[in-house]
Amino acid sequence: MSGFKTGFLWGGAVAAHQLEGGWQEGGKGISVADVMTAGANGVPREITDGVLPGKNYPNHEAIDFYHRYKDDLKLFAEMGYTCFRTSIAWTRIFPKGDELEPNEAGLQFYDSLFDECLKLGIEPVITLSHFEMPYHLVTEYGGWRNRKLIDFFVRFAQVVFARYQHKVKYWMTFNEINNQANFHEDFAPFTNSGLKYQPGEDREPVMYQAAHYELVASALAVKAGREINPSLQIGCMIAMCPIYPLTCAPGDMMMAMNAMHRRYWFTDVHVRGKYPQHLLNYFERRGFALDITEEDKQALTQGCVDYIGFSYYMSFATKATDDNPQLDYDETTSLVSNPYVQKSDWGWQIDPVGLRYSLNWFYDHYQLPLFIVENGFGAIDVLESDGTVNDQYRIDYLAAHIKEMKKAVVEDGVDLMGYTPWGCIDLVSAGTGEMKKRYGFIYVDKDNEGNGTLARSRKKSFNWYKEVIASNGEKL
Ligand code: P53
């Protein structure tokens, strides 16, 4: 016996903006992903002021899942998926974000998508906000720095919970809400929260304010979801990159602890419904006067999540330095390379044991069911002339991670609901906008410039993953 519980959810994960395309179909509005150009390894994506002529916006067409989902889902079913994680593009339901009534054509698209999943025995797992909020909420309201967004998000959540309550049981509110701990770069503030900063603006308190409004919105959504249908399971979604001390020097250990505080307090608020004291003390020391009302605090306690969804790709490492006596963590300057692990072509540290560590870390802290909703290896694949892709490196990566996941369940007793590897079909990279950074079991014929037939073909890992699922994780 593998130890994975009966009904363990095996599947794959994607996000609407990274695969659907059809960016203007069915009345869809412009999302933040629609104004991001293609970057490259080490070249950031450009965030343009609206959609400009002559720029390459890879998410506009993506892999055209909007028109091809029936065939793609058949391939997922062929691998034996029992679940499929995707997101609902907010802009299909509320094209601008601030409307009072939803867009029926958008709602119908997801009705058809979920019906198709259920027909194939695949349970949809749905993220409400995955880096694709309406762009209008950025230009008109300044993104999540504005309290008004709470109401817009909760309205969106209520509409989709009510509409799909009999088709979708598993939900998550905000994808990788803690990415914005990396607030010095432009990417995470914009994708998480629709934040654009003025030159010279003090970014950090704005990040905390936006995250606070999102956490309140998440809690209100959880509460509303339960009122609509108590059988819904609504979780949070955290990007887990555990931060190790570079050495066992006590200062490095303390630095790692502080770093973990700064990146993972979001989980405390989602799970426990209140801010950890270390963060309140930090706000005070830094003089951050945030808009956190008594009503907000009440809302947080009433919308604690049912489970913790998280992504795991890599671990980080950090160390104490003399010029940082208070051991403050800054994600752009405090991370160091871990000499004990290999890196992917994009510099992501490959650390399967870190997944077991992360599962234990979450379970020790929160004792809630866990769901690994992303894990995977972004790599350059070569399509052979016979149409195959020999992605043994991807198999090696995933097999090593599943082995550690199994130890966490069997040896450590962690309560794990399921596993959905990321980008189960090749799609547009969130971080770089590239097609070249592939994660899929299914190859999609399209390159960084947008050329290609969009034809799908099974990689070597396709058959491998099929066996993994059929054996409930025994045959790796
Ligand atoms: P890409 C950073 C660190 C960890 C996960 O990422 C991250 C990011 C953002 O780039 O994002 C998640 O495509 C995210 C997905 C994303 C996936 O990881 O940059 O939830 O949308 O595609 C992989 O290689």
Any key phrases for this structure?
8-stranded parallel beta barrel; Glyco_hydro_1_AS; hydrolase; binds 2-(hydroxymethyl)phenyl 6-O-phosphono-beta-D-glucopyranoside; GH; Glyco_hydro_1; 14 helices; 3-stranded mixed β-sheet; 476 residues; globular; alpha/beta
Summarize the structure.
The protein is 38% helix and 13% strand. By secondary structure, the chain is α/β, with parallel strands linked by helices.
Overview of the structural elements:
- About 40% of the residues lie in helices and about 15% in strands.
- It has 14 helices and 15 strands.
- The protein is globular and about 60 Å long.
- The site of 2-(hydroxymethyl)phenyl 6-O-phosphono-beta-D-glucopyranoside has 16 residues, from loops.
- 2-(hydroxymethyl)phenyl 6-O-phosphono-beta-D-glucopyranoside binds near residues 378, 430, 431 and 437.
- Belongs to the glycosyl hydrolase 1 family.
Rg for CA atoms: 21 Å
User: Compounds present?
Assistant: 2-(hydroxymethyl)phenyl 6-O-phosphono-beta-D-glucopyranoside
Average pLDDT, rounded to a whole number, is 98
| Secondary-structure-derived class | alpha/beta
| Widest beta sheet: strand line-up | 1-2-3-4-5-7-12-13
* Poorly predicted runs: none
